[in-house]
Amino acid sequence: MWFDTFTTPIGPLRIAADAIGLRHIRFEHERHPVRDASAWQYAPERLEFARTQLEQYFAGTRQQFDLPLAPVGTPFQEQVWQALAQIDFGATWSYKQLAERVGNLSAARAVGAANGRNPLPIVLPCHRVIGASGALTGFGGGLPVKRWLLSHESERFALD
Known about the structure:
This protein is an alpha/beta fold. Helix content is 34%, strand content 16%.
């Protein structure tokens, strides 16, 4: 696995990929450690494709990503992560709406757990999932980062 680390408006991000595609986007402070991260090789030239698109996102010039993604999880997690990709830039869904999208209305808690394990935040926009009341709920990068991302997108969305 190759990795690169770079500075963003929400703090440093570490991205990791292999020959198949992008595997991880990591915040500075993560709740869930990654196994074997100590074996990753620093190779920024191999991650330029992802870094460029993330930098464009933060600059406000990109709303959709065109990256080879290769997240690894359970079949249910992967189904939830695929559904995340359907949330439009500047929009939000509730956990209930996400559960409906994966075809299991009673699975809002399980959807929340899968959302929390998303290895590709921002690109698979788990920050766009909020509580049914509209309240911001847990986020791997912390609620201030989630608030920043949603604000960043709503500002850009309003300008287009």
